[in-house]
Amino acid sequence: MNDIFAPLDATEPLPRELLMESRRQRNVGRWELAGAMWLPTLLLILVLGGWLNLSAGPMVLAVVMSFVAFLLFALRGRRPR
C-alpha cells in the first residue's frame, strides 16, 4: 500500500489548510476599514476646525461623534467565525 500512497509529511500543510490560510489573509473587515478611515477623518476635522476658526468645544464634539460613528460601524458588522 505504501508503494501507491506515500505517507503524509507532517511539515507539509494539506490543501484545505492552504485555502483557509489564504482566506484569512485576504479579508478586510469592518474593524480594519473603520480604523483606516478614522485617522483621515480626524485630520479633516482638525484642518476644517482650524480653517473655520472653531473653538475647542465643537471640534471635540465632532471628534467624539466621528469616533462613536466608526465604532458603531465596526460593531454592526458580521463576526468572523
Kindly describe this structure.
The chain has 81 residues and is mainly alpha-helical. The chain has a domain of 47 residues. It contains three helices and no strands. The radius of gyration is 24 Å and the shape is rod-shaped. The mean pLDDT is 83.
Architecture blueprint of SSEs:
Blueprint lengths: L14 H12 L3 H22 L4 H20 L6
Helix pairs in contact: 2-3
Q: Outline of this structure?
A:
The protein is mostly helical.
Number of helices: 3
Structural class: mainly alpha
| Low-confidence region ranges | none
The share of residues in helices is 55-70%
Provide keyphrases for this structure.
3 helices; mainly alpha; rod-shaped; 81 residues
